[in-house]
Amino acid sequence: MPKGSTGLVPFLVADGAAKAIDWYGEVFGAETASRFDGPDGIVYHAQLRLPNGCVMELGDPSEALGLAAGGAGHGVVLTVWCPDMDAVHGRAVAAGARELSAPEDGFTGDRMSRIVDPYGHRWVVATHVEDVSDEEIARRIAAMGAGGDVA
Questions:
Q1: In the chain, what are the domains?
Q2: CB–CB of 24/48 below 8 Å?
């Protein structure tokens, strides 16, 4: 495993990877650890590090590398944990993300929202706000089903 990597690293294919690198830096505070552009001008591989220590990789679509960009709803949702999800959500929407759900406190004790970035990737932006037992989570889920208050 390469130095600085974890056992599972998402690789995002983004049509316009150079712009996506800038977007992830602006919105999530990602820093480019490495980047390799091909002779055709596309990003073959870039590694980004998020402030929370997570690593993600991305590149442009490439037939030679077998990489195709997916559309919205292609079965993958990425969660980014951050100290102030409201601020990150606001930056994301201001920078062109489509809001799927506004920030709200959830039954798990996490405040979260859902967005689709300009490159078609779905994200949950989250901040942990309270520790909640499994029993309390089950109670809150049951209350949601009954139309009651989850808090």
A1: 1-62 (3.30.720.120), 70-151 (3.30.720.110)
A2: yes
For 137, the token pair is: 């989570």
Find all residues with CB under 8 Å of 10, minimum gap 6, and list them. 56, 57, 76, 78
Tokens 């390469």, residue? 2
Beta strands in the chain (DSSP E): 11-13, 31-37, 43-49, 55-59, 77-81, 98-105, 110-116, 122-128
Positions in the chain whose pLDDT score sits under 50: 1, 150
Measured in whole angstroms, how far is the alpha carbon of residue 17 from the centre of its chain? 15
pTM given for the model: 0.76
